[in-house]
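Hi support team,

I'm opening this ticket because the web form for multi-chain structure prediction keeps timing out on my end. I have pasted the exact lines I submitted so you can reproduce it. The total is 661 residues across two entries, so I didn't expect it to be a heavy job. Is there a limit I'm missing, or should I split the entries? Thanks in advance, R.K.
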Amino acid sequence: MTREKEGYLFPNPASLFRRRLRSHFKETVAAVRSVIDDWTVLLYILVPGLLLGGRFYYGFWKDPLPEWAGMLSFPAVPVLLLIIAALGGILLLVREGDALFLVQRPEWLKGIMLRSGLYSMAAAAVKTLLCFLVLLPFLIRLFRVDGLVAGGLLAFTIAFEWVLMWSTHLVKVQFKGLRRWLLYVPFALLPSAVYVGFVLMFRQQAPAFWAGALALALLGFALLKARLGLRGTFMVDVQEDLARRTRLTGLLLSQSVDQPRRVRRKTWIFRKSRHVFRSRMPAKRIAGAMIKTLLRHPGQRSLYLRFAGVSTMVLVTLPAKIQIVAFVALHALIAYWLFLQWSAFRKDPFVSLLPWPEDYGMQAGIAALQTLLLPFSVWASALVLFSRLNPWLAGILFIPLGLGVSWAVPYLMRMFLLHKKM
Amino acid sequence: MDKENAERLLLDVDIEEAGYEEGDPRVRNITFRVYAGELLGLIGPNGAGKSTTIKTLLGLLKHAKSRVSFLGSSGRYAYIPEQPVYHDDLTLWEHMDLAAAVYGLDYEKFCGEAERLLRQFGMEEVKHDLPGGFSKGMKQKMMLMLGFLSEPDVYIVDEPFIGLDPRATKDFLRLLGEERARGAAVLMSTHVLDTAEKICDRFIMIAGGKTVAEGTLADIRDTAGLPEASLFDCFDSLT
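Hello R.K., no limit was hit. The queue was backed up. Here is the completed structure from your submission:
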């Protein structure tokens, strides 16, 4: 350290990296503590859970393997390992504030990225090792894999994970939109298929695994070097890094808070601002706007589809008499949810700036609810009618029934919710 | 502002007190009127109460004792906020379409007017894009276009120049001039005093939640005791 740097808190990239890594650990611990800080969680859930898990793991080694283990075939092993490998990711520990000073000093930025990259690879290796240890009793006792082969498989998986992490990272920070997804095919999907194929082909050949591990490890380090040589990706690096660092917090808060959404420029649904309805009346255009906001919101769209999926299982498995009750109840549930979405749309910061038209505001709400309810109603009607009537009759009636139900339910909902404005 | 327009009162504001919490008013005794064709500049230092005043007359504050009257024939007013407000899942065109639908504008007329505004502000290429990906200036332009779309009686504009390039600033001032000629009243809050001095008919200067001066530039100079001084110098003296 030169004399001029003595006394500085962060005299070199290594010290700044260590500080940022410590901050990252502190944030992670704080996020976990927010969930298990309550001693009752520790006492009643975590500690017993760990003890039980430990007993099970001991049992996998010493006791007869469980019955379900007999249903596993060896191809499940590389698939499971692939899923574990795919969970790895690169953390570069770059910050938005680095744009002020650090970005002008490439040796500093590279120094932080290099150390962060190596840390990410080490963390991925530890994570994969721990998961591999859980699988190990099954590999050895069920699939008769010897120690050298198991070790080779572990090394090969870790090295493959490094390559996958870097190749997907390089695609992510350099491309966006459709191009990014298309490039995942040759840089993520194909290598994954090759990994599974390689493991299946050389399942008992330790030298193949070790040689493959060495080759992939060298490739991994080459990709790390390529990453350090990239230019012009700073803002994307910051964005991706923030997403990565807050993943755990996001997961812990996912039940109570919506995930912040990525900034998008284009939409795939109703591209070129196409109208939902043919009519250009104001009520229909307002309804169309609300429908688009729901369909374009990934969370809302997913919830609608998941509700439809669960409803399918409910309607298909229930006996005939209860099916009708369930049909009505499910419609009431989804209609109420759609009504809440309409209310949320009305209270949206942008919409609330506009003077809401009381006269045709309700017409717009009814039109939006009827349209959004229609796919669910037609599907649910088909499920109920095809299970109760002969196929020809059901085929004729399910669409009119769906149309009728989707038309009527919003009006009925409106009657029950008189005190709420539409 | 011509004589004919001057007689038509479009915005009458009388704020006794208003604030964000019970018992903690941020502004007191703010009273002003804006007439057809007039541009009233609402000026003051940071924290003076300009935004609180605007939120009060928009009815956004719970704790407010005020009387606000929009007296135009259509009753329509447009608020152009300082921070752009938009919906993440609607394109620029859809924002304009929704605003036009809510205002009850004729669809064909809306299409023509919207295309004209998009050309004027250089936003034609991005009309089918989501505003989340816009730059700060583009978002600001979007707010301005949405305001102009409805041809309201009253414009309430909060810091319109921030983020606008010189061409957009010129276009905005020209459009504002056209609206004033049409008879719209404008209340504009701004820190850009040299521009305000050139374009505003009258001013209301706020500091510490109270009115410290109001009237034309000559009136402000008299209040400040600085004849021939610029608005900036009067502002500096009075606040």
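A quick check on our side: Residues 86-151 of chain B form one domain. Let us know if the file doesn't open in your viewer.
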